[in-house]
């Protein structure tokens, strides 16, 4: 067996030690509890702590169930959409999933978001977000899994829930080609939000800029996906820009008021959606559903 030289052992040790340091330097996902009445205050405090002057703060907020709630989390809400989306993935034959997703995101969502009532997740937090968005060193953006084709409806949702950060003029903000944005809301259409954050930050802030980035979301899986993407970023070429992962801060909004959709209600939602698509598209259930 060939033994490693002292120099090779030293190099291996340094690489291993650097890897351990990198592992422990990566930010974790912090949990912010949201509950009834005064229990909303942890959400408020988490935002308030990041609003100090001196360092530029770039704060990204998910929309549905993070900033506002659609239809009290019933039909047409983000909870409903997630249920339908998961059912499409597990119950519909791959040859037909695009038809169902197109109807869900491009047709039904427009109607839902235009007419269904909305309310802020936390009035106290909403008022603070509006306040800090006016500060010189704080930039506030929406970051949603919605598609940009419902930007008008999304603006209306935000406005009706009492938010006003969408209309702050930022002529200096650059929107890279792979990011779709309207009125300070970035639309990912189900894509990885970490990719959108990196593209947006590197287009607007050089690596030498003194800034911190905050991302709030009520879906832990999306925070994990974004964090994994950002943690693994490496420049492909010498001049490539990637955001400084040490500047990223992740917040999971754990809302105590959320209750899982009851199985009978979930089944009724899915059957209603199926019937609507079958009727509209004249589809044969025998071919559409997985066996």
Tertiary shape: globular
SS field, number of helical segments: 10
Largest sheet: 7 strands, mixed
Mean pLDDT, to the nearest integer, reads 81
Order of helices and strands: HEHEEHHEHEHEEHEHEHH
- Helix content class: 40-55%
Low-confidence stretches: 8-25
What structural class is derived from the secondary structure elements? alpha/beta
Distance between the termini: 55 Å
**Largest sheet: spatial strand order:** 1-9-8-2-5-7-6
Rg to the nearest angstrom?
Answer: 22 Å
Beta-strand portion reads 15-25%
Kindly report the oligomeric state of this protein. Answer: single chain
- Total strands: the figure is 9
Features:
seven-stranded mixed β-sheet, two-stranded antiparallel sheet, 291 residues, single chain, globular, alpha/beta, 10 helices
Can you walk through the features of this model?
The strands form 2 sheets. The protein has a 7-stranded mixed beta sheet with strand order 1-9-8-2-5-7-6, sandwiched between helices. A two-stranded antiparallel ribbon has the order 3-4. It is α/β, with parallel strands linked by helices and 291 residues long. Helices cover 45% and strands 16% of the residues.
